[in-house]
Amino acid sequence: MDKTRLNVPRRIVLAAALFAAALLAVPASADQAAEAFVASILDEANLVFQNPDKEARKESIEDLVDKYVDMRRVGLFALGQYARVITDEQKAAYLPLFRKYATTIYHDLLEDYSGQRLAVTGSIDRTARDIIVNSQAVDARPGDPLAGVVIHWRVYRDREGRQAIVDAGADGVWLAIEQQSQFKSVIANNGGGTTGIDALIAELRKQTGG
């Protein structure tokens, strides 16, 4: 079995040039509903970031992720083409493990925020139902890790108008895309198909203690 550790760096600093270029090619168009949705999440998150108790902050971040992130959609996206072959039994094992794994990743991404206030700075409509909302730490001091960093939130809107976060990233690099690359590698390196998915599930169990 491939022993490569599944990791997403705490500070996402690699350049996703092709993806960023695709975004820049889409005309900017403020989506007020998506911006208001993300702004309301950030209002809750800003209160969480002010809590000096790390354990309490972690629990609150988990609550925010459960409340606003469509983990099923993100989890299946992370499988890439293997989402078409995963069995119902494997889904029952994989999706809770993915939630636990991804929640830890979101916590690590947000751990740097210690009192800075995140605010929405604009949005880009990829489609009417797929919107990128940007935010920044508006009170970051020069030299702070977050100074000048653009935090992205990808919002998916279903046909009934319900909105959910389906990805997050910084400076053009996205968590779900990073996860998909690593997950597909583990699956492919362990025989592909359902056999490879079993190997991924085993790796997630090991990493999450599940």
- Helix and strand succession? HHHHHEEEEEHH
The gyration radius over C-alpha positions equals: 17 Å
CATH architecture descriptor: Roll
Q: Which structural category fits the helices and strands?
A: alpha+beta
SS element count, helices: 7
Poorly predicted runs of 5 or more residues: 1-5, 8-28
Q: Terminal Cα separation, in Å?
A: 18 Å
Let me know the CATH homologous superfamily. Answer: Tgt2/MlaC
Main beta-sheet strand count, sense and barrel state: 5 strands, antiparallel
Number of strands: 5
Helix content: 40-55%
Task: Give the overall form.
Answer: globular
DSSP strand (E) fraction?
Answer: 15-25%
Chain-averaged pLDDT = 82
Instruction: Fill in the CATH topology.
Output: Nuclear Transport Factor 2, Chain: A
Question: Descriptors for this entry?
Answer:
single chain; about 210 residues; alpha+beta; Nuclear Transport Factor 2, Chain: A; 5-stranded antiparallel sheet; disordered N terminus; ABC-type transporter Mla maintaining outer membrane lipid asymmetry, MlaC component; signal; TAT_signal
How would you describe what is shown here?
The chain is α+β, with helices and mostly antiparallel strands and 210 residues long. It has a single domain (17-208), classed as Roll (Nuclear Transport Factor 2, Chain: A), CATH 3.10.450.710. The protein is built from seven helices and five strands, in the order H-H-H-H-H-E-E-E-E-E-H-H. Helix 3 (54-68) packs across helix 5 (88-110), helix 5 (88-110) crosses helix 7 (193-208) and helix 6 packs across helix 7. Mean pLDDT is 82; it is low at 1-5 and 8-28.
